[in-house]
Specification:
54% of the residues lie in helices and 8% in strands. It is mainly α and 72 residues long.
Length: 72
């Protein structure tokens, strides 16, 4: 997938656990795990906003476009 999710990187920088972030955002730890592993097909803007608020970051800090090697 061309979109890389860097939530775990920002969480580590903020010294925040998955459980704590899930609780602050209001999603299940399982759904957070799906997002962190890049298996999510979509994310609601309200969820993205809540993650950014909890981590004190911008959407670009947690989402990154990385071209696939076969799309060059």
């Amino acid at each position: 997938m061309a979109i890389r999710v860097n939530v775990d990187v920002v969480m580590a920088q903020r010294k925040m656990s998955s459980g704590e972030l899930a609780e602050r955002v209001g999603i299940t730890p399982a759904n957070l795990s799906i997002l962190k592993t890049g298996k999510a097909k979509a994310i609601r803007f309200s969820t993205l906003e809540a993650i950014c608020q909890a981590l004190h970051c911008q959407p670009g800090d947690i989402l990154e476009y990385v071209p696939d090697s076969d799309n060059s």
